[in-house]
Design a protein that fits this description.
The complex is a heterodimer of chains A (377) and B (182). Chain A is an alpha+beta fold and 377 residues long. In chain A, 52% of the residues lie in helices and 17% in strands. Classes of the chains: A alpha+beta (377), B alpha+beta (182).
Chain lengths: 377, 182
């Protein structure tokens, strides 16, 4: 029976192609948009989750998320260090800054790390050494930021940049995970930050729990001891992502695009498959007249749907994979973006369920069909 | 002599009340096993309707159709499907060939529906078509018949294709008790 179904399906090449393209379009749009959304949200917490030497973040209680830092008293770091279970702790600065190259003036994000421990600094460097930040009046910039500040120029270590009115020297280029904010990231030591204009008090205290201690439990102990908000990295990352989910229009925008992809794809598949079944009702009636029962006809339809869904899904997934293989390499805004396996699985489930439902909706007519219609002219 | 088919006061009406049309008015018929029975009559007298009732495609308005001692009206939908699948060979007036299938595949449809594997069913259908002198048409699609056949041979080819399918499927009646079949 499945063989008969497939022969009938391929014989109507136009409709088979329309259904496959419908599924492919739907898969491409849903997978691509969902993956971009997931990566974008993950990027909002990328600094937190990628800081391997830090697993506890202490923040001002009015600070909602990572990109909304408060101002903490400099002495707080000592109180944190005294809490049971804390291995080490250091101040961490994050604030806006203005960079001026004479050719370009733009907003940047200034990240100040503790001179001694360099806690919270990026792990991966493209040029130079993070330890060079211990030299006064030096900075490290991220790769994308370098291109923004000095567009189309080769990397040149030792060049100067005016940050908040003071000239500081480039000692390295880092390759941190993509941040949510697209502004350049300027890494300096806290001593250098204190020499620049603007706030130099810590925005966060970053800490690490002792080996064997639970970071979440230590965070609770820090909260009790200091009265400031403390989170383990996972919770703080989640809090940051939740902020963007709840307070920006990003989820709605992506949801609408994904929904449109779903609706358009589903409409094409359901409508075309319904038309396909309707045009083949006479053949289905013939099979019933020759003794085919309902289940073999349902199975035949499911196989038709599964083939259409599998080919369309594969094509759409190939398109989405191609996008994430090529675009992030060429477009800095998409750096680090990828197609998460969870997105592939969920989109696949949606596509196959829609295909099967469209088949089942259509096959209802065939099941209720009076086989005697084959006798009519 | 065993009665293979018995019809008792078979009545068939079509249409809703007010526009009802009676096609069969109390038909009584007995067809014996092992004999060729032909039904003749003018157009519209109900021959096809009678055969459709006997084939399990239509349910009579009244009366009883009994095949090998078993009343068709007493069969469930599933039993009727099995009866059509395993005991009845159809040659439809419109042939009802599936355009997507070759002549051999069309002839194999009944076997495939009856549960035979595709390769075996198509091979049997090919052999049957070859026996009927239609071996050269096995791989042709129904739409290609008019292109290379005269009207008469095309008609013969089509009916033979369906006949091959029908005869192939009637090889081993299963929904009728074995004793009654004999």
């Amino acid at each position: 029976m499945n063989f008969l179904g497939l022969q009938i399906l391929w014989a109507d090449f136009g409709k088979a192609t329309a259904m496959i393209l419908g599924v492919a379009f739907s898969t491409l749009l849903m997978a691509q948009q969902a993956a971009i959304f997931v990566c974008l949200m993950a990027n909002s917490a990328s600094h937190i989750t990628s800081a391997e030497d830090v697993d506890i973040w202490i923040a001002d209680e009015r600070s909602d998320y990572f990109d909304d830092p408060g101002v903490l008293p400099p002495g707080l770091v000592d109180r944190v260090r005294s809490v049971e279970g804390v291995a080490y702790a250091a101040p961490f600065l994050r604030r806006g800054a203005v960079v001026d190259t004479r050719a370009v003036i733009e907003q940047a994000v200034l990240v100040g790390v503790d001179d001694a421990s360099l806690l919270g600094a990026p792990q991966k460097m493209l040029h130079g050494d993070m330890k060079s930040l211990r030299t006064a009046d030096t900075f490290i910039v991220d790769r994308r930021g370098y291109n923004d500040i000095w567009p189309e120029e080769e990397i040149e270590i030792g060049r100067f940049l005016e940050v908040d009115g003071r000239l500081i020297r480039l000692v390295g280029v880092a390759d941190p995970p993509s941040p949510f904010i697209s502004q350049p990231l300027i890494y300096v030591s806290l001593s250098t930050a204190a020499l620049l204009g603007g706030e130099a008090r810590p925005s966060f205290i970053v800490a690490r729990a002792k080996d064997g201690a639970d970071a979440a439990a230590v965070a609770v102990a820090i909260e009790k001891a200091t009265g400031y908000s403390a989170f383990d990295s996972k919770a703080f990352g989640r809090r940051t992502i939740d902020y963007y989910l709840e307070n920006t229009g990003i989820p709605i925008n992506f949801f609408i695009t994904i929904l449109l992809g779903f609706i358009v794809g589903a409409a094409i598949v359901v409508q075309t498959f319904y038309l396909f079944i309707t045009e083949n009702l006479r053949h289905l009636a013939l099979f019933r007249a020759m003794g085919a029962e309902s289940w073999p006809l349902i199975r035949m339809t499911i196989v038709q749907c599964a083939i259409v869904a599998a080919i369309g899904f594969s094509l759409g997934l190939a398109g989405a994979s191609w996008f994430f293989e090529t675009v992030p390499e060429k477009v800095p805004a998409f750096k680090g973006f990828y197609l998460p396996a969870g997105v592939v699985l969920k989109v696949g489930a949606v596509v196959f369920v829609v295909a099967f439902l469209s088949g089942l909706v259509s096959i209802r007519r065939a099941i209720r069909l009076d086989p005697a219609i084959v006798l009519r002219g | 002599m065993t009665a293979a088919i018995e019809c008792r006061y078979l009545k068939m009406e079509f249409g809703a009340a007010g526009a009802r049309q009676t096609v069969l008015r109390g038909v009584n018929l007995t067809a014996h096993a092992g004999r060729l029975t032909m039904i003749a009559g003018p157009s519209g007298c109900g021959k096809s309707t009678l055969l459709s009732i006997l084939g399990g495609l239509l349910t009579p308005t009244a009366g009883e159709a009994i095949v090998f001692g078993r009343a068709l009206s007493a069969m469930s939908a599933r039993e009727r499907a099995a009866y059509r699948r395993e005991d009845v060979g159809f040659i439809f007036q419109q042939y009802n060939l599936v355009p997507a299938l070759t002549a051999a595949e069309n002839a194999a449809v009944a076997l495939i529906i009856a549960g035979e594997k595709r390769e075996a069913a198509v091979a049997r259908a090919r052999a049957t078509l070859a026996t009927l002198g239609l071996g050269e048409h096995c791989e042709k699609f129904p739409a290609s018949f008019p292109a290379d056949s005269s009207s008469a041979s095309r008609s013969r080819a089509r009916s033979c294709t369906v006949r091959a399918s029908s005869s192939a499927t009637s090889r081993r009646p299963r929904s009728i008790p074995r004793r009654a079949r004999r």
